[in-house]
Amino acid sequence: MSGVMLLDDGFVFPKSFDISVLENLPIYKHHYGMPMEANPTTLYWTEYQPSRPGTGTISFARKLYIEYPEVAMYLAGYLNSLFPRINFDYRRVNLLKTKGNIQPHVDESNRMCCINIGIKNSSLAVTRSSCVKDKDLFEGNYQETVCKDNHAYLLDTSSYHEVVSKDDAVERYLFTFGLGVSFETMKKEFRG
Ligand SMILES: [Fe+2]
Distance, CA 65 to ligand 1 centroid (Å)? Predict the structure, then answer.
């Protein structure tokens, strides 16, 4: 069984959103276990620091809607077109940035699965996804996917997954929407 599903290959990027914004947001370094700002009032990257030297970083920019409400609403509408019975709160549309290799992990904070939409440089990494809950079983039991810009994917983040970079100097950008609903349930809801 796979931990990834291609949902759509025809996302139309919102014309009003300038991609260069992504490269110019402030960056706050975050170490695992540190408290997160409960209620951010500006848009910035929270950059999770690698657990081991030499590994890559993953960053979230929460609350896209604070500075780009139309973009967040457009994304929520798009997600709703894929999952008509699911309510997507535009205030929970986030940006995601990855750089370098991201080690095998499961996501925190009840993020059971997520929908990722490639924005820029998506294809410069291989995502290894699985339906494996035990890290020792991950090796040899993953599926490799090269994500593409303007494609939307459902990813099982409650199972082990990993990102292997093809170019460590490049930052990859996505829209992401995390869900506290299982991957299997969301698969059933797709265009349901
Ligand atoms: Fe993850």
Answer: 22
